[in-house]
Amino acid sequence: MFQSVFVIKGGKGMITKKQLIKELRKNVQEMYAIEIEDATEQELFFSLGTTIKGIYNKNWQKTWNNYLAEEQKQVYYFSIEFLPGKLLKSNLLNLGILEVVRESLAEFSVDLEDLAAVEKDMALGNGGLGRLASCFMDAIASSGLPGNGNGIRYDYGLFKQQFVDGYQVELPDEWLRNGNVWEIRRDSKAVNVHFGGDVYMQPKSNGKLGVVAENETILRAVPYDTGMVGFENGIVNTMRLWSVEIPSSEEGKYRSIEERRVFEDLTAVLYPDDSNARGRLIRLAQEYFFVSAGIQSIIRYFKKLNHPWHVLSEKVAIHINDTHPALCIPELMRILMDEYEVSWEQAWDLTSKVMSYTNHTIMAEALEKWPTYLMKRSLPRMYQIIKEIDRRYVVSMSGIHDAALIERTRIIQGEDIHMANLAIIGSHSTNGVAKLHSDLLKAVVLHDFYTIYPERFNNKTNGIAQRRWLQLSNEPLSRVLDETIGKSWRHEPADLKLLMNYQNDPIVLEKLAKAKQQKKEELAKYIQETTGIIVNPTAIFDVQIKRLHAYKRQLLNLLHILKLYFEIKENPQASIYPRVFIFGAKAAPSYAYAKSIIKVINEVANLVNHDQTIGDKLKIVFLPNYNVSLAEKIIPAADVSEQISLASKEASGTSNMKLMLNGAITIATLDGANVEIRDAVGDENIYIFGLTEAEVYAYYENKNYSAREVYETNPIVHRVLNAFVDGSIPNIEREGQEIVDSLLLYNDEYFLLRDFDAYCEAQARLNQAYQDATHWQKCSLINIANAGTFSADKTVKQYAEDIWQIEPLFAHTHQGR
Ligand code: Z16
């Protein structure tokens, strides 16, 4: 065991109220030449952010110096998306100064919540994958693990969503407009990234063959670092995001303004496609840009340590989050061989030891393929190296495996480069993100590779940052937990299990119900303010929040809502407990079908919400611009969690975990991590319905599904589908027809009609169960108590031990308790 060079002090008592006010006053004066009392919210937010940064900067420095001094193995998490949301309150919580700051501001009659609202969400991601990366950043720092994020600093994050006449409209997300208080630009760490040109081999002065490149375009990658503050442990890791600039030496070289703009705009926008790869030149350039910059800075760090190359895999682990950063593999090969004259064999050995890869989907359209001509033209050296990796792969497998298998698994097939194949072949670990998903990878999607490299495949079930998704977003529930089971759960989510001892305690159940009610009232207020819709806060709050995708089946939810609507209309006395159906979902701007579903949900909402005979038995609320901050408002208020994707399609899901943690009860198919939620809470505490993954595959096999048959034999389905085209729902002529066609003409790709009855039956049971308040509360308690197993802390520790082989800083002590 090593002795630490510095002692990092973390946790409570880092700063007193007096010190904080003094620092804040100084910053307001220095930055704006005014007093705290005269500052606007924006000015105060910035001054406070600067003050907070000043508090953790020393720890940031010390953390880094410690890693250097101990030469600890580092992991670099390469992700084209990060979705941290707002950082003010999470930084305060993790520094242990949330209450001090709240009280300090109160002295100036400033509400911390108002200041926190000023911060723009950092939304440099689409959904699950990007949010997972940010939960991991939080968990890695909080577990004291030496880990860094590496990504892109997009000028514009994911678009802002508005509804106009029920249609999604996309507006640019100018998150940097007022500056970003958390980032530090590091000019001294900038590197150049080369694109295009002509590449050929030529003998060098020492006689060895070298690579010569001519007519390349050279861009500057400038890093902006953001501190990732660990929870009460004094550790601050780094998320490094790269931004493009045109080096002054290159200014004269562009043939046209258009050409200049392509490069200038390289890091301008995040591609808004979730689980759908679109082969655009600029996207490929983005991928190479942050990969090359990141690998260069890693190698620069490693060179500082002064070790021979064979030590690289003892000091560095690189994680490839989905295939977007898969060029890490040929780029590391390039740097080792071209810049340091390492042999192919040694470079390949090191590369595969350093790299690991996570697969996040089985959806074919999300598996990236790049046309060889694009790669050849825009990244010629990458193309050469990939071609050689592919060639050697085929040679090395010949005679061991049959030719057809080799053909199916090689990297270059026809005119396409298969990035997942590159990631698997060039790394030592491939993992899925939930048990079922990992099993499907082995059995179906990547079965060929599983036969070749069985030892490389493993599962790492996703997890969530319990700090953001419970401690920060749900204070009422957090207080009940403190009072009931003590505070250890705040450090150790597994301790939520202690709550199981209170499942029959009426006082605890009542307190949980009250906490939920408070959050529902807050959300009801927000709903009224933003949409004008008045909802009954004692109704069941039924929530489906996730990207809009056919496979996630928001439409199935709507079909059930329409069934209820017709039932109440026909029989206003029907025993339906009042329910508010809440949706939050963005559709990729190019995904027409998803946008049609948004339009139709909005039109049904309009119809139902204004129907006097329905009253408050049924309300439908589609909240616009679903993002991390909105999730923090919705999730604590949810009674029901909708996780109804077609079995086999959702790799894991993570909103399912967040909702469970906040006491919502899940209605779900046996898909993704829902299976593990069911295992954790037991069949009595979850509403499972629908086809299993095996049944779905059997339908594919036998091709014996007929959606039209369901339509013709099931009068309720008939009635509900007709409503889309017979004018009962106004303003959806085109969209209604499109949806009915998708179900009947194109045979319902995601089996909505097949699962409809089972879904309605589960919903009816749930509706019944809610009316027994004690029973429901107990069920909710059991969900909370068992949610600790989905902690990102636990997940990253598994990555650290099984894949990255990294250890926590101060493995021998425990700071900050
Ligand atoms: C994404 O968010 C996911 C998969 C993917 O291929 C691309 C993107 Cl942008 C999601 C999965 O759909 C979801 O099931 C999973 O929970 C999440 O990644 C994190 O693993």
UniProtKB/TrEMBL annotation:
Entry's EC annotation: 2.4.1.1
Modified residues (N6-(pyridoxal phosphate)lysine): 658
Record GO cellular component, one term: cytoplasm
Glycosyltransferase as UniProt keyword: yes
GO molecular function terms noted in the UniProt entry: glycogen phosphorylase activity; pyridoxal phosphate binding
GO terms of biological process kind: glycogen catabolic process
Location of the protein in the cell: Cytoplasm
The reaction(s) this protein catalyses: [(1->4)-alpha-D-glucosyl](n) + phosphate = [(1->4)-alpha-D-glucosyl](n-1) + alpha-D-glucose 1-phosphate
Top-level lineage group: Bacteria
Cofactor: pyridoxal 5'-phosphate
Residue ranges of the TM segments: none
Pfam family, one: Phosphorylase
Record-linked InterPro entries: Glycg_phsphrylas, Glyco_trans_35, Pyridoxal_P_attach_site
Keywords: Allosteric enzyme, Carbohydrate metabolism, Cytoplasm, Glycosyltransferase, Pyridoxal phosphate, Transferase
NCBIfam families: P_ylase
Family: Belongs to the glycogen phosphorylase family.
Primary role: Allosteric enzyme that catalyzes the rate-limiting step in glycogen catabolism, the phosphorolytic cleavage of glycogen to produce glucose-1-phosphate, and plays a central role in maintaining cellular and organismal glucose homeostasis. Phosphorylase is an important allosteric enzyme in carbohydrate metabolism. Enzymes from different sources differ in their regulatory mechanisms and in their natural substrates. However, all known phosphorylases share catalytic and structural properties.
The protein's name in its UniProt record: Alpha-1,4 glucan phosphorylase
UniProt organism field: Enterococcus aquimarinus
Lineage: Bacteria, Bacillati, Bacillota, Bacilli, Lactobacillales
